[in-house]
Amino acid sequence: MTLDYQIDGPENDDLAKPSQDGVIGADMERRDGRSKVTGAARYAAEHLPEGLLHGFLKRAPGLGAVRIENAEEVRAMPGVKLVLRDARMIRNAAQGTAGEAPVQGVETADYVGQPVALVVAESFETAWHAANRLKVSCNGASLPVLPENGEADDDMQEESVTGEPEAAFAEAEVLVDETYTTPALTSAAMEPHAAVAEWDGDHITLHASLQMLRYNRDELADSLGIASDKVRLRAPFVGGGFGSKLGISAECVAAALAARELGKPVRVVQHRRQVFEVNTRRTETRQRIRLAAGQDGKLTGIGHEARLSNLPGEAFAEPVLQGSYFTYAAPHRLLRSELVRLNRPAAGSVRAPGEAVGVTAFEVAMDELAQKTGLDPVELRLRNLPETDPVSDTPFSSHRLADCLTRGRDSFGWQDRPTQPRQHREGEWWIGTGMAAAVRVNMVMDAEAQVRLTPEGRAVVETDMTDIGTGSYSILGQIAAEGLGLAVQDVDVTLGDTDLPPGSGSGGSVGAASTGTAVWLACEEIRRHIAGLMGCDASDLTLVDGFAICGNSRRSLVELLAGEAVSGRGKLEPGEALEKVRQATWGAVFSEVAVNDITGEVRVRRMHGTFAVGRVLNQRTARSQAQGGMAWGLGLALTENMTHDRRDGHIVNRDLAEYHVPVHADVPHLDVQLLEDADPWAGPLAAKGIGELGICGSGSAILNAIHHACGVRVRDLPATPDRLLAGLT
Amino acid sequence: MRPFDYHRPDTAEAALNDASDGTAFIGGGTNLLDLMKLEVMTPDRLVDVNHLGLNRIEETDDGIEIGATVRNSDLADDARIRRRWPVLSRALLAGASPQLRNTATTAGNLLQRTRCPYFQDIDAACNKRDPGSGCAAVGGELRNHAVLGTSEHCIALHPSDMAVAMRALDAEVVIRGSGGSTRTTGLPDFYRLPGETPHIETTLEPGELITAIRLPAPPGDRQAYRKVRERASYAFALVSTAAVLRMENGKIASAALAFGGVGTQPWRDAEVDTLLRDERPSNALFDKAGEVLMRNAELREGLEFKKPLAQRVLKAVLTEVTR
Q: Based on the structure, what is the number of domains in chain A?
């Protein structure tokens, strides 16, 4: 029994709705938390089958045709089992939802660091040492490595023109015309990518660290040249992904090929330095933003033009313009992006692809407009909110940006803020505050889940959905508990196994809403079955505390099931809703920073975020997601900068000592306020994405606060001390 | 990691007897093990010096002697150090992370290798790692690189915080040679400039072992350590300054200033110290000290900021300690 549902509109009255004060939405601890902090949770690399061999990927030290001079010599080293060079090895991780192999091959290095061989040995140390002994030479680059030298790919242009933007810019009473740059960035998930491959006949089981198993299965099968039904992926625990594990990655394919050849299980773990190189990074961007406005701050024209990069053969372009289509009203609009092809490691999705850097730059430009017009930054934004989608004129499914701006302003304590910069000093430190709007498009994706109700009255949720640290285990358990009237401890959740129904996977903030809705639908299917047993309509049935109630009849589930298990399956498809409405999540982020007048060091004193994200499924995990996003915004604004060598494009600072993610000492109290957002277009669960919104704007709240503190406008990120010095006393 | 032998002697004499070509002494291993995994350093043999009884801090006539394997966190916490040599405690606590400081040793910190990413990348040319292979850092991406004491062969930065404070405190290195001989050398003679031989970083000879660091009585009671970095912890210095001063009758009676984040070794410039001596504190004086400090700076692309930043920090520190 499968209940199919598509979100085509706001009407879903035939489906049950979560109650307002039920298990869904409660502030609950993670059901996997204890197993993670005690080490009981087994991650991919901790799966240790009998006879396990260890592989280490060998990186290309240069670009161009690859030659390995001494493979046989290395193969003969003690403990070495195999030097694998196979045309099926993949060049870089697949893009999210590709569902097919990425570019394959080891004969040509398109970026420095590309895996060009796998050395397998009896121990990890031996494999690594042997890999270091391989002599690899390359014959040179075919493409530039600097974005300014790259040529735009005609097939990767995006352009949208509304009205006559150039005229609007020319005639503007007030014009902001500035260029912003953001550096290449990495996901920096805590768990390095890892895979353990085991073959049984022509079937492979791969324990891996991946975000979207339903697609990864097809990607691995296609890479190996086998049918998808021969592939089983398992990823019950994933130590962070942030986009870097959306697609099948190099160690998965290499481990599978080596295990096949050797007839033994093979484990391949990426070294931290490889994590930076062989998975997808966030492209560097160059963004010209023009804002034409009247003296009253009303926008007449918006221009947002971006330059991005990627490797040849990659269809991904960071959608930096995404938020600029609908955040602010303006009659004239020019949105354009181009992508150049470079010999740099592949670019792909990193948390909030598009808005993370697009909204961040745009919201700094808005602050510059506030400065030029003399308007309060919150007021400026309130004056420019659209009634409908400004480009397509479709209605918004829900629009909560004004509420986020005003309620965030009140919660933060914005009222007494001096309008001019450089007004508040404490010793060596300039103190200032800044804010930014946050927007992120909302999506759902195909998802299936199964729920089984056992004769003992326990429920089991099953889907290949992953929990990458977000709280999937917890919220899916809560949804099933509420759907079936059970306590959360009476629900088991099994995830991360392609033998189970295909969930959405984790990516694009779709997981909770998409797979969560599939679980809700599966419960609805069971409810209908129970209603049949009770002899009533499902709409008249109440399930609570392990009992079914219909009119005057109240029976325990155990009695009602009479030894028979019941299972239901839910299937969600996106439907046509997003053709009819513009759907997004909304927020406003405020920050207070201190800028050292002598050194240019910036320390964030506090941050506040108000967000509207549909129904909150678990206050605690939702808050954590928002806080995590805000901490990412801090890193984007102040510390993170992946440096490419100007001569060969290789990533120079490819470890966590030199690539600076914020540490505890950098991250102050992050206050989060979640607004109720009853979006009728979000399906029966009314949940929307939250994993990425927190990063979409919080960086600019900090950059704008820096300007307010010390008068220095930083347009090239991150705002490191050296970039502030010239403007200080 | 290349296979290696591991020895764990009980006495310094045994450790020295154990040391042959290709031997590395291992203390905390926080730096050495990382570099061994990357095969940037490839010793055949590790001789563990953690069990030689070199982990004591003992007062001498008017100074203090710090055993080679005293942990950074223990040294930073030592009450005597905090009272009379607080600049050292401050510098230690500004470095690394608590976990690293709990393991890293005093001698190991003096000998820590550069963070130059090209040094740490066995696929890149590096005269320090592979003499004569060239320097990929020159013409590359520079941030944690030196502007003082560089040569065309190497612009690698010495990354230590601790050693900067030690340099201002006139620390001496106690070195034991095979046969039981002992010599003592000041840091100016201990560290070498890269010149044409950047792979030889100190005057420590093969078969010699650092057993202790001696600090004489502090040359000044006004002490400060200031470190600048964009990340509040676990980041190497963009620049840092250690200052040890003594004031008499409103004048600077003695000044010892040392600098991190700028030099190929923990940097000290006698001309800066001399300039300040017997002078009354003033902005003009401090500005001049900054000019003197940076007079020979090689500001390669990406490192231009080091000059104004070091000068600003120097001025701020001098203002603080002469107040």
A: 3
